[in-house]
Specification:
This protein is of the alpha/beta class and 268 residues long. Helix content is 33%, strand content 23%.
């Protein structure tokens, strides 16, 4: 599929998700204790409930890590969250930067932006802003942010080289990013790679881990470090939607791995 087609799919899928609660998403997607429909979104998500600043209205269960955990966010920092959704990571970051800092969320899905702005308005925060924009071409000034975070979003971006180049551009010298994302080890079966739902569910768009890290380094970042890594096993009932029983058996013996990683890098 062309990049524009993939972006349209993501907009449509996440626009639908924005209209649902976390509980609805978990009952209609694939969580550890629920049945499956057409999506895979919530099988990656980590628990946010104990984090300071957590806002349950903003938690749609769409992440694959806790990027603020290793982001080193300080009081007064200016933080950018890429693919901010309903604002989940933005509200956690806001608790870290305090009233003297600022948090900006960037998203290109209108329904998510509307939900995020409504959540911020309820809390009467004046130092959180949600901006519409494409991660490959951000409508933001260069050298603007101390920290960039993102949670299970860059795998949805067709051109990851452009994405990391833009992250480098908007960070201040000495600034850094902390991103949780999905990567691969080994090749997914073609039927999974070409499936639009699996792309929107953060699987088919995932890059090889070594290639992902190389993309970061080639964008100019130094001190690139993976802080956390966990393997994600897709349930057979999901895989059998796209694979035959024989293909599934071959996939399971291929040693192909899907991983959630949390990685940081510094702009010198």
């Amino acid at each position: 599929m062309k990049a524009d087609d993939l972006k349209l799919i993501v907009k449509e899928k996440y626009g639908e998700i924005a209209s649902q609660s976390k509980a609805q998403n978990q009952s209609s997607c694939c969580g550890s204790t629920c049945g499956c429909s057409d999506s895979t979104y919530t099988i990656f998500s980590d628990a946010y409930e104990k984090l300071e600043g957590y806002n349950p209205d903003a938690d749609l269960g769409l992440g694959c890590g806790l990027p603020t955990e290793f982001a080193g966010i300080k009081k007064g920092d200016s933080v950018l969250d890429l693919g901010s959704g309903a604002g989940n990571d933005c509200f956690v970051a806001r608790a870290l930067v305090g009233s003297e800092g600022k948090v900006t969320g960037l998203d290109f899905t209108d329904a998510m932006l509307e939900k995020a702005r409504a959540n911020a308005a309820k809390l009467k925060y004046t130092n959180i802003e949600f901006v519409k924009g494409d991660i490959e071409d951000m409508p933001l000034l260069a050298d603007s942010f101390n920290v960039v975070i993102s949670n299970c979003v860059l795998n949805l971006v067709p051109d990851k080289t452009k994405a990391f180049s833009e992250i480098f551009r908007v960070l201040k010298p000495g600034g850094h990013f902390c991103i949780s994302d999905v990567v691969l080890s080994g090749e997914l079966p073609e039927s999974l790679r070409n499936e639009a739902v699996m792309y929107a569910g953060c699987v088919a768009g995932a890059q090889q881990k070594d290639e992902y890290i190389s993309t970061i380094k080639n964008s100019g970042f130094s001190e690139v470090q993976i802080h956390k890594e966990k393997q994600i096993d897709l349930p057979d009932e999901i895989l059998l939607r796209y694979l035959t029983a024989e293909d599934l058996s071959q996939y399971k013996t291929s040693k192909t791995g899907i991983f959630s990683i949390t990685v940081t890098g510094v702009k010198k």
